[in-house]
Design a protein that fits this description.
Elements (H helix, E strand, L loop, with lengths): L7 E10 L5 E6 L10 E2 L1 E4 L6 H13 L5 E12 L5 E11 L13 E7 L12 H5 L8
Parallel strand pairs: 1-6
Antiparallel strand pairs: 1-2, 1-4, 2-3, 2-7, 5-6
């Protein structure tokens, strides 16, 4: 890849929770961009001119067919993938409270299952970036 083709993207990564101690994770479907069969939180690229909160609201609606009830920015990660590096994202990590009764798979080509999990009982296999993302989350506050 030539230097002119290298880009840095900005993504909004969101860890959805029910406000009662459980996290929402999605299992990546066979048609997912990467790591099919692995559990992950949600994410999407920030669009030009969009706030972090607007991007998360849009992506939660698209991926989980529900509304974000509360959003808080938790931190930022520098995500470098590949050897040599062929993917570079700045990930703004957010916590998002959602209503568990209103959640559904909104993008079946990307996800084939949803599940609610206690932080100590997260499923496997997990996406390669999930544990680093969850390290920014104070799981005790959910």
């Amino acid at each position: 890849m030539g230097d002119q083709q290298k880009r840095i993207g900005v993504s909004c990564v969101f860890v959805c929770h029910d406000g009662a101690g459980r996290l929402l994770l999605a299992r990546r479907a066979a048609g997912a961009r990467d790591e099919p069969g692995r559990w992950d939180c949600g994410a999407g690229a920030l669009e030009f001119g969009e706030s972090f909160e607007a991007a998360v609201t849009r992506e939660v609606r698209e991926e989980y067919a529900t509304e974000a009830l509360a959003i808080s920015v938790l931190g930022v990660r520098n995500v470098l993938r590949g050897e040599p590096v062929d993917s570079h994202w700045v990930a703004v990590v957010c916590a998002v409270r959602v209503d568990p009764a209103a959640v559904a798979i909104g993008e079946p080509h990307k996800f084939d299952a949803l599940g609610w999990f206690a932080p100590a009982e997260l499923p496997t296999p997990r996406h390669s970036q999930l544990d680093a993302t969850l390290a920014l989350v104070d799981l005790r506050r959910f």
